[in-house]
Every structure is written in structure tokens, then in C-alpha cells.
């Protein structure tokens, strides 16, 4: 190791070894997150000096000699990643709020957090986004934005685990831990090494915000809510009231694009808009689009409306022609957070070009916001207004919503077919990166579409969407929605009388539950799938997965029975690869049962039938079995071949598994120091994956090696 960063990593590794603690235990004792500590130990991140001090304190070591080395490493740093910016666009006509803007900025600098509260339509989100853009230079690691859906019509507020999952996903963490506390700790850890500004918009209550706060560090959070979040300790509030008349008149004049005359008429307009920026923008847009009108005419029209929001919204709506008004009403029926022209075309049955023209008119009238090029959203109040109008005036609203569901299903299935997957021989023509980007962009809307399908009884869509998301879910296994969607899809398949499809969905449900560590529930799902009459190939897969669950529960004999049943079913079906996999895992649990010679025979039989990465399990099992019998050189050769396969195919979880059993073999052959190096590598590889069961297995092996090493030194 030559550079200061590498030398610092070496020193930190010595501290960890001296502590005798597992990575998580050391992180806990030092007051760090295990994910951050993993990055420090693997050289992916230079730790803050406070973290070095905390680690030294755990082992009662003076940190001062490390200060010069740390300073060199910190100065060299690591290459910065691209700045992320998820913020909506700032309003070109943002007006007033000078005092509130200054107060919010001051609190962000001093307290690192602030809540903007106030009534609907008063401009909370506009102020939050405006401040976030103004302060972008102070937060070089980016601006994150999340709508918590606290008051969004037709949507349930996001619960903290789901919100944390989406925030971590924005930081490219695709396998977050399952529990809320673990996610919150990881979130705080990630923000502690960044200088980012997080906007949490539309919060329902303090309980849903508290786990999302960044904690210590240089990141900051800006929350908006209609409610006063008085129980949110350490987060000072800034309450918005309607704009004062001078600011309201300035905003109205800016949007209208006219010099205001006639104080009485202007006052009447301001009174009907109630000082609410949302209403003022709509009224101003109405006047701008009617050059023959005066402010007096506008005031008279506003007086004709029975209520304040009807005055603003209704007038903006009446400026449109009938087809555009229909588009607006139907937009209130859309599931999800935002939309594009294609979704609107499906909703309305109009050509995309006509929908694009209508959306332009709605944007000009301030009824729709173009949040980014080609993507649109609506303020919650306007969305509710549109939905209320649709309920009164659109008798075929269910038909329109079903067209939207079909649109999302067809698009999802099309893009899914472009993604490589073990479930299909070859993907369809297309760009897999573009396909995955589409799923990333539309994920929230797809989940909302599934929920709408369940409410409408659209079982065909409810069955299809989770299957189209299968590859996306595999790459984002921490996604909370997966279990809920698969459970609902299996129920829908049952209602349709599709028992074979229901069995496949239940098998996927069991796999998702097992990946989350919910092994008892996984076994129940597998049993239900088996009762549903699975196809022959699926029956073998179910037996294999049942074996995995029993293995992870420590029930080796029951697991071996399942693996042998799977081997028999795969062999009868002529599935050579499946047969090899079942034999390999039979060999592995046989080894666990203390029968290395029989395990070696089964492993060799598996290797005779396997190709490529499918050989990994057999090679690992054979290597460990031979190490038990003292065939050191041959054992290590097989284990290194397995590791090479895992590395060449970029299978990170398999790499961790291979490193773990290389360590076990080295321990058996009397090389505990080298064994510990492989254990540490395995745990570092596992840290970002959050593979619960695999991590338990690897940690148990590590603790055994560590105990053996300590005993040998004693």
C-alpha cells in the first residue's frame, strides 16, 4: 500500500482486528453505522476524523499518531460523484416571502432542519423548492425530493419504511435492510458523509417524518405540511399565512402580465383569491389569456363563483374549450404521482398530439405543472377538484381508468421482455438500460396502478403487473411493495381460476419472503403453491426453494429430503441444470450433516451436469469436503475456481459465499490468518446487499474462525 488512503485503511483494519469484534459490533460500539464502517475498511470512503477517533477509543488506542496520515488521505479524497438533483423546477414568478425565505435559510444553516406549515394552497412547496434552489451551492452532494403523499387524493400517505426505501434508492442503494430502524440508521449514515438538502413534501404528521430526519452531519432537511408538527423535536417551524395585499397584487400582476389599475377591482380579485398564491396564479393566467378583459371584468366573473377555490379553479377551467375541460376532469382519475402524454392519451382516448396540446393549455392556465420536460403533475387541491368534477360529469370514468391500467400493463410487459432474465431464453430486441430506466421512473405509478386495479376488480392487470416487475424486483429486493403485490396478484389469479399462474405467483411470494428472512411465511407460501397444482417445472423449483428455507432454518435433514425430491423431479423433466443444482445443494447439506465423503460424491455428480456459474455450489461443497479429509491443495483449487466463476460473472453474493468457504477450508487446513482475510472480504461484499440469511451464515462461519484463532493464540 503506497498512498495515504491505502495506509489509513491498513491502520483501520488493524484496529478492527485488535478489537476482536464483528463489523456490526465494532460499528455499534463506535457509534457508527455498519455500512459506513464497511466503506472505511474497504477503502471506498475516507472516514471523518471523528470516526477515526471513535474507533481508536473502542480499542483504547491514542488516535493522535494517525492524524497526519488521516489529513493526507482526507486531502487526497475520493473522486466526487455527479450531483443529484431531484427537485422540481423553481417558479419563475415566485413573489414575496422575503422574511420567510430568510428565516428558512437561517434555520437550515443553524439547525439543519425546518418545517414549513400552512393551509392548502398557501405556497409551502413553492417556498421549499425556491429555498432549495437558492441554497444549492451550499449542498454540493445534491437535492433530494420526496412527496410523502400526506394529503394527496386517492393515495395513502407513505409509511416510514417505504419512504426510507425510496430515499435510499435515490442514493443508489437498491438492497436496503428490511426493518424501519435499520433503514433509518442507514439513511442517517449515508447523509452523514454527504452535504445534501432533502425536501420532504406534503407530510401528514410528525410520526411519519421523524425516522426520515438526517441526524448528525452537514446535510439538512426541509419539511412541508398542512399541520403544525409540534412534536417534531429539534425541527423549528415556519408558518405561512396568505400573502399580504402588496405581495398578492405583485404576484397577480406578474402572472397576468399587465399593469394593474383600479384599486377597488384589484382588491376584489385579491379578496376572492384570499392571498393564496395558487389561486392568484390562476386568476392572473385567466386575465392574461383574455386580452380584451379588464381587471373589473375578472372581478365580476370571480364574484359569480360560490366559493373561493371554485372562483380560482372554475374560472381557469372555463377559459378552456370543452375537450380540454374533459381532459382536466379525467386527470383527477389518474393513479400515481405524475404522468406523461402517453398516459393521458390512454386515459382520454385522444391522439397523443391532441393530448399534448391540451396539456399545454392546462399548464398555461396553472391547472397542471410541468415538473420536468414531458412529465406533469397536479397540486393536490386541483387534483381533488378535478376528481370531484369527474365524479359528477364523467359517467364512464371506470372505463377511462381501465384504459390507463391496460396502458401501464402493456408498457411494463414490453419493457420487461427487454430485460435479461433466467426465466426466458433470450430478451426481446430493445435497450435493457432504457427499459430499466422506465421502470425506475414509473415505479410509483405502477404501484398505484396495481392498487387501483385491486379496487376496480381488474384482476387481469393485478395478475400481470407483479410478473412484469419480476426482474426489477429481483434487482431491488428491498422493495417493500413486492410481498403485497404478489399476495394480491395470487388472490386475483385464484379469482380468475388460473391455478397454475397462482402457483407461480405464490412461489415468487415465498422467494420474496425468504429473502426478507421471513422463512416460516415463505414455507407457508410454498405449501400453498404446491396445493395449487404447479406445472412440473415449477414443482421441482418449489421443492428446491423449500429446501433452501429449511436449510436456512437449520433443518438440514428436512432440507435434504426437499433437495432430493427436487433432484428427482428435475431429472424426470429432463432439466439437466436443475438436476445439477439440486444435487449440489443436497451435497452441501449432507456436508453439514457430517458426511464429507458422501457430500463429495454428490458434488462431483452435480459438476458432471453443470456449466458456468451453476458449478459454484458444487465446487464449494467439494472443496470444503476435501479440506475435511486433508486434501488441501485440491480443496483450495476447487474453491478458487468457484470464486473465479463468481467474479467473472459479477455475482457479488456468490463471491461473498465463496470467500466464506475459502476461509473455512483455510481454517481446516491450519491457516487462520489467511482465513480471517477472506472472512473480512466476504462481510464487506455483503454489507451493501442486505442478504439476511447469507449474512447470518457468513457471520457464523467468521465467529467460528475467530474463536479458533483466539484459542490457537492462547
From TrEMBL:
MF annotations from Gene Ontology: ADP binding; DNA binding
Superkingdom of source: Bacteria
Protein name: Tetratricopeptide (TPR) repeat protein/transcriptional regulator with XRE-family HTH domain
Pfam families attached to this UniProt entry: HTH_31, TPR_12
Native organism: Actinoplanes campanulatus
Annotated ranges, domain HTH cro/C1-type: 12-66
Amino acid at each position: 500500500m503506497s498512498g495515504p488512503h491505502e495506509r489509513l485503511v491498513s491502520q483501520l483494519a488493524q484496529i478492527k482486528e485488535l478489537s476482536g469484534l464483528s463489523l456490526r459490533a465494532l460499528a455499534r460500539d463506535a457509534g457508527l453505522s455498519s455500512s459506513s464502517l464497511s466503506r472505511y475498511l474497504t477503502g471506498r470512503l475516507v472516514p471523518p476524523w471523528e470516526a477515526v477517533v471513535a474507533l481508536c477509543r473502542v480499542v483504547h488506542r491514542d488516535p493522535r499518531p494517525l492524524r497526519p496520515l488521516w489529513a493526507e488521505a482526507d486531502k487526497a479524497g475520493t473522486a466526487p460523484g455527479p450531483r443529484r438533483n431531484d427537485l422540481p423546477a423553481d417558479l419563475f414568478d415566485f413573489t414575496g416571502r422575503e422574511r420567510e425565505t430568510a428565516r428558512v435559510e437561517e434555520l437550515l444553516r443553524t439547525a439543519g432542519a425546518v418545517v414549513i406549515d400552512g393551509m392548502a394552497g398557501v405556497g409551502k412547496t413553492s417556498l421549499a423548492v425556491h429555498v432549495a434552489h437558492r441554497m444549492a451551492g451550499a449542498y454540493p452532494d445534491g437535492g433530494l425530493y420526496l412527496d410523502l403523499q400526506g394529503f394527496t387524493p386517492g393515495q395513502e400517505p407513505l409509511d416510514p419504511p417505504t419512504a426510507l426505501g425510496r430515499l435510499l434508492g435515490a442514493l443508489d442503494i437498491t438492497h436496503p435492510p428490511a426493518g424501519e430502524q435499520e433503514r433509518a440508521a442507514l439513511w442517517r449514515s449515508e447523509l452523514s458523509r454527504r452535504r445534501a438538502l432533502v425536501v420532504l413534501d406534503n407530510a401528514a404528521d410528525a410520526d411519519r417524518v421523524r425516522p426520515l430526519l438526517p441526524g448528525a452531519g452537514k446535510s439538512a432537511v426541509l419539511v412541508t405540511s398542512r399541520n403544525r408538527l409540534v412534536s417534531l423535536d429539534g425541527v423549528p417551524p415556519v408558518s405561512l399565512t396568505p400573502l399580504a395585499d402588496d405581495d398578492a397584487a405583485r404576484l397577480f400582476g406578474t402572472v397576468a402580465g399587465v399593469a394593474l389599475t383600479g384599486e377597488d377591482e384589484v382588491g376584489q380579485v385579491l379578496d376572492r383569491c384570499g392571498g393564496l398564491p395558487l389561486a392568484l396564479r390562476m386568476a392572473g393566467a385567466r386575465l392574461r389569456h383574455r386580452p380584451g378583459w379588464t381587471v373589473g371584468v375578472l372581478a365580476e366573473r370571480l364574484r359569480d363563483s360560490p366559493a373561493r377555490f371554485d372562483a380560482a379553479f372554475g374560472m381557469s377551467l372555463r377559459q378552456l374549450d370543452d375537450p380540454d375541460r374533459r381532459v382536466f376532469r379525467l386527470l383527477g382519475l389518474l393513479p400515481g404521482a405524475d404522468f406523461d402524454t402517453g398516459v393521458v392519451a390512454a386515459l382520454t382516448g385522444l391522439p397523443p398530439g391532441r393530448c399534448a396540446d391540451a396539456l399545454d393549455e392546462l399548464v398555461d392556465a396553472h391547472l397542471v405543472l410541468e415538473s420536468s420536460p414531458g412529465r406533469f403533475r397536479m397540486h393536490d387541491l386541483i387534483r381533488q377538484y378535478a376528481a370531484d368534477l369527474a365524479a359528477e360529469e364523467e359517467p364512464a370514468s371506470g372505463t377511462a381508468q381501465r384504459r390507463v391500467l391496460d396502458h401501464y400493463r402493456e408498457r411494463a410487459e414490453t419493457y420487461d421482455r427487454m430485460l435479461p432474465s433466467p426465466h426466458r431464453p433470450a430478451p426481446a430486441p430493445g435497450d435493457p438500460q432504457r427499459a430499466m430506466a422506465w421502470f425506475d421512473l414509473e415505479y410509483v405509478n405502477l404501484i398505484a396502478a396495481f392498487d387501483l386495479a385491486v379496487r376496480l376488480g381488474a384482476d387481469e392487470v393485478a395478475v400481470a403487473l407483479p410478473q412484469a416487475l419480476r426482474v426489477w424486483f429481483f434487482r431491488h429486493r428491498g422493495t417493500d411493495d413486492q410481498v403485497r403485490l404478489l399476495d394480491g396478484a395470487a388472490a386475483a389469479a385464484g379469482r380468475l381460476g388460473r391455478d397454475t399462474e397462482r402457483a407461480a405467483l405464490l412461489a415468487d411470494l415465498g422467494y420474496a419472503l425468504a429473502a426478507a428472512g421471513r422463512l416460516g411465511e415463505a414455507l407457508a407460501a410454498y405449501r400453498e403453491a404446491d396445493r395449487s397444482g404447479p406445472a412440473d417445472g415449477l414443482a421441482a423449483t418449489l421443492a428446491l426453494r423449500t429446501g433452501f428455507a429449511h436449510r436456512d432454518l437449520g433443518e438440514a435433514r428436512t432440507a435434504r429430503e426437499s433437495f432430493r425430491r427436487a433432484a428427482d423431479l428435475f431429472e424426470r423433466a429432463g432439466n439437466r441444470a436443475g438436476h445439477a443444482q439440486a444435487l449440489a445443494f443436497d451435497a452441501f447439506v449432507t456436508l453439514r450433516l457430517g458426511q464429507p465423503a458422501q457430500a463429495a460424491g454428490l458434488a462431483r455428480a452435480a459438476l458432471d451436469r453443470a456449466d458456468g456459474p451453476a458449478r459454484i455450489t458444487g465446487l464449494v461443497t467439494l472443496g470444503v469436503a476435501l479440506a475435511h479429509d486433508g486434501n488441501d491443495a485440491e480443496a483450495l483449487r476447487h474453491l478458487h475456481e468457484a470464486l473465479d466463476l463468481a467474479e467473472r460473472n459479477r455475482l457479488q453474493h456468490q463471491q461473498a459465499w465463496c470467500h466464506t468457504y475459502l476461509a473455512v477450508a483455510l481454517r481446516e487446513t491450519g491457516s487462520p490468518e489467511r482465513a480471517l482475510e477472506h472472512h473480512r472480504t466476504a462481510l464487506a461484499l455483503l454489507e451493501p446487499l442486505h442478504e439476511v440469511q447469507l449474512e447470518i451464515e457468513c457471520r457464523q462461519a467468521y465467529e467460528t474462525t475467530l474463536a479458533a484463532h483466539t484459542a490457537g493464540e492462547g
